Amino acid sequence: MDRDYGAPERKFLASETALSVTEGSLIEGYASLFGQADQGGDVVVAGAYGASLARLAAAGRRVKMLWQHDPTQPIGVWDEVREDAKGLWVKGRILPDVDKGREAGALLAAGAIDGLSIGYRTVKAEKNAKGQRLLQEVELWEVSLVTFPMLAEARVATKGQALWTELAQAVRDARRALIPTPGHSGG
């Protein structure tokens, strides 16, 4: 089903390892992960952001950093937004000279907010056999810091937490590889 939906949409991502915060205002991590269904049944396909990011770069424009998808409340700048094999990676700065930016930094530091969400327009999508909408191409407008993310894998990590979370996952993966699960022979 090739179709231009046209309406603005938002996709939330929350993960223990999605975003790290350093020095109170520098943030980086994944705003979207490929191949994972969100609560609305949408799945972003690898490469979905490529054309949009190329158009923005050619025009000398950037993806906006907003507070809770409010276009009247920019809170910082995304210095780098790119696709990799895992998803949409972002790196930027919350601006402490902006009132909402200062608030966002304080809320992140306290753990009161921890989600990311993308604002976009669907350019091309189709349904799969499970009834999920596969987003094959989207026009990315903004990445927001949000309270309630839609995809459970995108939560903000505090300084150092992302490294420890990745290390813990590596240990769990190694343990699974070495120790058979009960009821399985391990091979």
TrEMBL record:
Domain Prohead serine protease: 23-159
Gene Ontology annotations of biological process type: proteolysis
Domain of life: Bacteria
Keywords: Hydrolase, Protease, Viral release from host cell
GO molecular function list: peptidase activity
Signal peptide residue numbers: none
Pfam family membership, one: Peptidase_S78
Entry protein name: Peptidase U35
